Amino acid sequence: MQPPQVYCHAPKLWGMPAKILDAEQGLEFAVRACEELLDKHNSPVVLIDGRAGSGKTHFAKALSERIFQSQRQLPKLIQMDDIYPGWDGLRAGAQYLNQQILTPITQGQATSWQIWDWGNNQRGAPTEPANGWRSFEGGNLVIVEGCGSISKAARDLAQLCIWVESDAPTRKQRYSDRDDGIFDEFYLAWSIQEDEFYQAESSQELADLIISN
Question: The domain containing residue 142 runs over which residues?
Answer without folding.
Answer: 5-212
